[in-house]
Amino acid sequence: MEKRLAEIDPEIEFLALESAGTDGLRLFIDRPGGVTLEVCQQVTDGLRDVLLDHSLEVSSPGPERPLTKPAHFERFAGRRARVTTVESQNGRRNFTGTIAEAAADGIVLEVDGQNFEISYASIERSHLVPEIPQGAAK
């Protein structure tokens, strides 16, 4: 998918592709300067062959931006993220905390004052957690 997106526009970054219903696909993309409706339409037009068998929804990442590559974790170090692992680690699979470190082989996620080392290979799904502005109601 990354190669196809690069052919459409080299600045478009593939983030994730997930199922959206029985025959639908949801494609998350990002681009420096943001994702506009025109960019979504450009991608949809460039992937017309996919539309023969599936409906396609092209979307910007939004506040819960998927984190699918080591570079994403590096870029968003210091931000809050939710990480689900393939197998249980320390008796849990779901972690929500601050990305304390992003290394070549995995991340350190600080959860309630405790650091968890999680390898990229063990991450099933991860995304940013929207920041709650200070003073806002919880």
Task: Reconstruct the topology from this structure.
Elements: H1 2-8, E1 13-19, E2 24-30, H2 37-46, E3 55-59, H3 70-75, E4 80-89, E5 92-102, E6 106-111, E7 114-119, E8 123-128
Parallel strand pairs: 2-3
Antiparallel strand pairs: 1-2, 4-5, 4-8, 5-6, 6-7
Description:
With 138 residues, the protein is of the alpha+beta class. The chain has helices at 2-8, 37-46, 70-75; strands spanning 13-19, 24-30, 55-59, 80-89, 92-102, 106-111, 114-119, 123-128. The chain has a 5-stranded antiparallel sheet. Strands 1-2-3 form a 3-stranded mixed sheet, covered by helices on one side. A hairpin with a 3-residue loop joins β5 and β6. The longest helix is centred in the first third of the chain and has 10 residues, at 37-46. The termini are far apart. The model has no long low-confidence stretch (mean pLDDT 90).
In the CATH scheme, the class of the largest domain would be Mainly Beta
**Low-pLDDT runs:** none
Strand order of the largest sheet: 7-6-5-4-8
- The third-level CATH topology of the largest domain is SH3 type barrels
